Amino acid sequence: MASQKERETHVYMAKLAEQAERYDEMVESMKNVAKLDVELTVEERNLLSVGYKNVIGARRASWRIMSSIEQKEESKGNEQNVKLIKGYRQKVEEELSKICSDILEIIDKHLIPSAGTGEATVATATANTELSSTHPIRLGLALNFSVFYYEIKNSPERACHLAKQAFDEAIAELDTLSEESYKDSTLIMQLLRDNLTLWTSDLPEDGGEENVKSDEPKAVEPKSADAKSAEAKSTEANSVEPEEASKDKQ
């Protein structure tokens, strides 16, 4: 049984790494906490989430830049440069795949088995099935998943379908929305609608898939234990971070 002192040390080092913007080390510290096989606190879950968000976000940004340069070089007919860029882009894709597999393993092997009842279980396993259509966590999940389909899978049709379904279901239950989550939920619903407007312009008239993209879509990002710090370090300019993700941090 790990000592409380060891746990507190890992959490402190994660916070320190966040302040220093050394997110890979932040992730390692929080992985050490997860591997203690204890139910994470709200603060610990947020630190883990913010750490992974940043290590993934940095590589996503790199991937976008390289993809843009690759398209420009292709249009110029610079095949040698295209070959070099593809190799570099694939390296980033492999890193992304490894990071995603890493967090999934942490969730399956440590977080879910260690989660008790209530919010901890919802956060790791049952958000989509047990939360209402207007709950900000469920809406945020739908928003981010739709962005994944659009941005990573190059599937604007599926992205639009998921975003529209989440938006319509939330609208249908808008009268049941609690005062506590009203602000967060309506903000995310607005992002869903904004993305739908953006994405429908990318859909060809025949309904097929298309890879040409407009402006960058908007997604929800979590806050860490230090809300102001997380906002300052956010890599997405147009995002909303629901208060639900940062409760009990004060």
From TrEMBL:
<dbReference type="InterPro" id="IPR023409">
    <property type="entry name" value="14-3-3_CS"/>
</dbReference>
<feature type="compositionally biased region" description="Basic and acidic residues">
    <location>
        <begin position="210"/>
        <end position="234"/>
    </location>
</feature>
<dbReference type="InterPro" id="IPR023410">
    <property type="entry name" value="14-3-3_domain"/>
</dbReference>
<comment type="similarity">
    <text>Belongs to the 14-3-3 family.</text>
</comment>
<feature type="region of interest" description="Disordered">
    <location>
        <begin position="202"/>
        <end position="250"/>
    </location>
</feature>
<dbReference type="InterPro" id="IPR000308">
    <property type="entry name" value="14-3-3"/>
</dbReference>
<protein>
    <recommendedName>
        <fullName>14-3-3 domain-containing protein</fullName>
    </recommendedName>
</protein>
<dbReference type="Pfam" id="PF00244">
    <property type="entry name" value="14-3-3"/>
</dbReference>
<feature type="domain" description="14-3-3">
    <location>
        <begin position="7"/>
        <end position="213"/>
    </location>
</feature>
<dbReference type="InterPro" id="IPR036815">
    <property type="entry name" value="14-3-3_dom_sf"/>
</dbReference>
